[in-house]
User: What shape does this take?
Amino acid sequence: MFRPHINVTSGAHLKTSRNAPAFTLVEVLVATALTLLLMAAVVTYFGDIGGSVGDARANLEMADRLRSAATMLSRDLQGITVMPLPPRRPEQGEGYLEIIEGPLGTRVSPQTVAVIKDTGAPDTTVGDVDDVLMFTTRGRFVGRCQYSPTGVIESDTAEVAWFVRGRTLYRRVLLVAPGMVPPNAQPAGFYAHNDISVRFDPDLKVLLGNSLSDLTRRECRFAHNPFQYPYDARGWGQLGLPTLRECSSSKWSAGQVTPPPEPVWANQIDFWAAAADVTPPCVHPWPNVDRETGTMSAYMDGTRYTDDVILTHVIAFDVKVFDPGAANGVGEFVDLGYANAQYNPKLMTPPGTPQPLFYHLGDPRSGLVGTATRGCVYDTWSFHYETAGRQPGDQLAGRAVNGFDDDRNGVVDDAEELVAPPPYPAPLRGIQVRIRCFEPDSRQLREVTVVQDFLPK
Ligand SMILES: [Ca+2]
Ligand SMILES: [Ca+2]
Ligand SMILES: [Ca+2]
Ligand SMILES: [Ca+2]
Assistant: This one.
């Protein structure tokens, strides 16, 4: 039984191998075709894996860049030189903290600006991108200085500004080093060779280096109008602040008030689309600004375009302030001017309920009231405007510090006698900054939130 079984099996096998070709041509062709199909499948399969690995790597890189941006911002915020209890006094040499809450997010919905080009539908992935955060801070800062033998200087304090232009997050750093600016420093081309905080003096028509005391005064700060109260930095409109590339252009002059030509506002932008992809049906009317970097076309010849770039593909840079009276007295992070209301110094909340601090658009006496096109401004301010007045020869100057009850309300030098108070006469307990990016290849979103407390709770 055993043996025949073997024989039959082996016999049949031997017979086949001995008397017939191993495979017919058709069989070989079919087998080859099948093998090729299988290999194609395998290749496709590994190709997909490769793509996912590439996407995963791109996502990881995006996460890394976002994390280091957050770390840098956090470090900058921890080093802030000023106590955010406005107004501050210049003689104390504390520098400043200023937040400009651009109209996006409060007065204007980001969804009315951000559109998906293919469909024309609002893009809900885009958030508040028009806030500006600037302050003086301690750290170790290195920057260019043409008046130094090495061309480089260091300082442990700097004026730092964070803002978005186009889809790029910028961090301008200007070293506080007033001793390094000589009397003959020229405004034209200054920033191409110097990362030093300076102001243009309208009377002397020269550049002067800033100390922290100087920077308590708004007229000395980066990109502020030095000519008249309230020394506004909002003239750049939707562009926020000038970039290093623009400032290093041959046409740029330190102390320049507004960018000529006046930037045209964008009313529809596809943040996700490639920079070159600006064809109808969706219109992107931002003709004199590069969509990726936000650079004004008049200043594209700037020679320095990497030093202040922190992140690309940014679709939110949202600064919020902590208001203990918001959310019915529970307190939460809010946009400045969130209630879109006029300032009411007599606003009373029920006893035991914290007073809302940032609901309004700003005290009109500060000259910095938020509008549909100009943001709300939080500023640590300078008390010297109270004694100096709002302009030369101000008749009301000093009335809140003269020891008389000028408005005869029974209180000497009370808040109602103030001539030039800060836009928000409120302590700032802390801020929150949310940065959101997208990765164009994997089409992934990623977000990071930085929170900094300034005052003990
Ligand atoms: Ca905003
Ligand atoms: Ca905001
Ligand atoms: Ca008085
Ligand atoms: Ca009074």
Notes: Residues 405, 407, 409, 411, 414, 416-417 surround calcium ion (ligand 4) (CB under 6 Å).
